[in-house]
Amino acid sequence: MIKKILLGLSIAAIAGVAIAQQPGIKRTPLQKLDFPAGYNTVTAIAEVPAGGAAGRHTHPGMETGYVLEGELELAIDGKPPMKIKAGESYQIPEGAVHDAKAGDKPFKVLGVYIVKAGEPLAKPAP
Q1: pTM
Q2: What residue ranges carry the coiled-coil annotation (predicted)?
């Protein structure tokens, strides 16, 4: 029971870091695994309202995701922006500065983050 409570608090704390990036974004943590060695695998759903953006940020590991609803523009520094629609997936390399923007409709993604243990899930980038 205590382990479940601590896990829930850990996930909420991790999500809190990411939520602080941009108001109006809803992140729902689903699970956190201490795997592989030295890393945490975090699974979450992120919802961005119409006209909203995640805000430029980085992760201390890789992100992969699947668009559940809507469409987003994924901008990764050094690459042309990509339009990603519901039913499509994406990958973001470790440390890459990126942003995800909604157009005139909201979007929802299922994100999986494989990040270095002991580091925040996300850090704002200029």
Answers
A1: 0.80
A2: none
